Amino acid sequence: MNTNTQITQRPRTLTRIAIVQALFQWEQGTEKAANLIIEQFLLHRIDPQCNEEIYNDGKAYIPNVNLFKNIIQQFVHQHSEIDVILIKTLPKDWPLHRLDPVVRAILRAAITELLNDAKDPPTKVVINEYIDVTHAFCEGDESSLINGILDNISRQLRPENASSADQT
How far apart, in whole angstroms, are the C-alpha atoms of residue 83 and residue 108? Predict the structure, then answer.
């Protein structure tokens, strides 16, 4: 994973990085229950003593544990619906399993947030955050792929924000 000083200054971004790691772990671990993933992650992967660092001896700093828990719980509860949304957005000749597992975890986390009924944070913030998260994991063109897919999905899930996003 690439470290970025700018990311360490943004607590919600650090939390989203941990969310992506947990969703990656969920998929690799035969899709465990949300509470088990959260419990294991909090026990083995989070270091409350690690204030400004992304990693300290393999442990992460998660400034917003509630956001972490909420997204993981919502994803595990709705993962089938989230995957259907993602599959419908991908080209017909590009099945879900063909996506890189990290990219798949990033997209799943972002879609989970976009499904949030509160519409908070705003659509553009969610997309920008997950583009930044992509930069933490990937060095190639994955951020362009993430941006395009999330823009398309956000128009479906939050159409009321689509026109305002296009005007900025």
Answer: 7
Q: What is the CATH number of domain 11-158?
A: 1.10.940.10
SS3 for 60? strand
Cα→Cα distances 14→51, 74, 88, Å: 11, 19, 29
Residue in the structure block whose two tokens are 């419908």: 88
Tokens of residue 157, six digits: 């899930």
Give the model confidence (pLDDT) of 5-57 as tens digits: 455 557 788 889 989 999 998 888 766 788 888 888 777 766 555 555 555 55
Q: Does a cis peptide bond (omega within 30 degrees of 0) precede residue 121?
A: yes
* 3 state SS of 55: strand
Query: In the chain, what are the domain boundaries?
Result: 11-158
The b-or-e profile of 143-158 (16+ CB within 10 A means b, else e) is: bebbeebbbebbeebb
Within 13 Å and on the Cβ side, how many CA atoms surround 52?
3
